[in-house]
Specification:
The protein is α/β, with parallel strands linked by helices. Helix content is 39%, strand content 16%. The chain binds nicotinamide-adenine-dinucleotide.
Amino acid sequence: MKVLEGKRALVTGVANRWSIATGIARRLHENGAQIALTYQGDRVKDEVDKLAGELSGAPTFECDVSNDASLAAMREALLQRFGTIDALVHSIAYANKEDLAGKVFETSRGGFSLALDVSSYSLIALVQSLREALADNASIMALTYLGATQIVPNYNLMGIAKAALEAAVRYLAFDLGDRGIRVNAISAGPIKTASSRQVGGFARILDVVPKVAPLRRNVTPEDVGNMAVFLASDLASAVTADVHFVDAGYHAMGLFALG
Ligand SMILES: NC(=O)c1ccc[n+]([C@@H]2O[C@H](COP(=O)([O-])OP(=O)(O)OC[C@H]3O[C@@H](n4cnc5c(N)ncnc54)[C@H](O)[C@@H]3O)[C@@H](O)[C@H]2O)c1
């Protein structure tokens, strides 16, 4: 029997085949979960429907997390066409490109609100909207990055948003713990996607990791998906309120050994 047999997972944040959410959805599906996807807007609908076809025809639901009406409509459609969920994957972030380079003190009030709304508050908004749709003992996970707690030049405003997201993970874990619902963050190493390409100098980050990380390689969306399978499964029955690194060990380095 597959480890996620009988579990239903809602995966947000699939935009294209390079999205981390796509790798996660694939791994969850391979391990027995029934998948539903949300996507943002008509621009990506065809691509997401195509990917859903490869996941046993997973239903897809439009959802803009910055819009309460869109969240409510998604919940209704989800409950009608898919039912309650045992796993929820938050794989969503956005900041204006000018806030992913330069100086943090140049960040505008509007840019800050937008980034924090879409990248951090959205986890709270999703839980608020879907709390009745979440089964007891469900697993919620959100994607984060080392830049939440360490300085990663150019990550800037997104680092601040990820810090808020990681704090939200802990508080939500406390709020939902009485229902056995677990909430965790997965801190992924750098992966080339539409979003990460917006970060200034991102290609250089991808170059550094294989030179210095313990595993001497970058990670893939499927590596991240493997952690998602564990967190969604009953094997992680007492694992909550934490940040789990899937970054080939990079975060643990204190000094980059040369040569
Ligand atoms: N790529 C990396 O190096 C990396 C590393 C660590 C963490 N992450 C995180 O992984 C997650 C997924 O990013 P990705 O790299 O796969 O890029 P991606 O561009 O493929 O995914 C980002 C997703 O966010 C969605 N989104 C943006 N605004 C939205 C809104 N208002 N409503 C609904 N959806 C919205 C986009 O549609 C897209 O599907 C993000 O949280 C990102 O910060 C990425």
